[in-house]
User: What shape does this take?
Amino acid sequence: MPQSWKLGQATITKIVEIEVPGRMTWIVPQATPEALLAERWLQPHFCTPVGKAILSIHSFVIELEGLCMVVDTCVGNDKPRDIAAWNLRQGTFLQDLTQAGFPPERVDRVMCTHLHVDHVGWNTRLVEGRWQPTFPNARYLFQARDLEHFLSADDAMHSQAVNDSVRPVLDAGLAQPVDSDHRVCDGVWLEPTPGHTPGHVSVHIRSDGHEAVITGDLMHHPVQAAHPDWASSADVDPDQALATRRGFIERYADTPTLILGTHFATPTAGRFVAEGDSHRFVVD
Ligand SMILES: [Zn+2]
Assistant: This one.
């Protein structure tokens, strides 16, 4: 059974595509094994005893007020990618999603927190040699500024992902550009968290007084709660990303809001807790 959370009337379900321990310095250069081991609270969930970071690539499915929305669509299958573990994957994500009660036809919204390669993959799938939208009955919400930014991307990695995972959705007429504070329904809205990409957003969920927020890639690993200055090498605007990360942690620290980390390993959900002049991420 996939992991899920009840939040008032809302249900949030996590569908994992890839979850493995490994080196993290390619994405957060300061997160060396020694540096991770120095933060003992990261073990056992987010760091192995030898200092390997555990990261996850997963989607969240939000059910609330009749809405069935997939947030972020991972890497996808059959896609040529430069990263070996992501190249021409043949994973079971779609079967897992269906088995969890979400056949693609049931999904009525898809939201990408930003348009990086590991967040757009299952937007499309290969059918008879062509990239087709995976979710035929969904509107795909793309933040307008991110869409503009990535449609003009000229580096191979980003343009490849845009061409096979974003443009076919536009061509099929299923894309809806939205603002950073777009409200999807009464209890689900976007929260602007720019910097990692120009139009990066987080997703806020509220029901019966309970609140949760899906981070997106404003941070990649819980260690950044203690070290918000450890930037991601993929941050488009590092200064803005740092301000966003700090602001986000301070906004939610010591509040009941459940933090759902987009790349946080299982158990994925927890809360920011102040400790001295720093913070930790504490799981339930
Ligand atoms: Zn990512």
Notes: The mean pLDDT is 97.
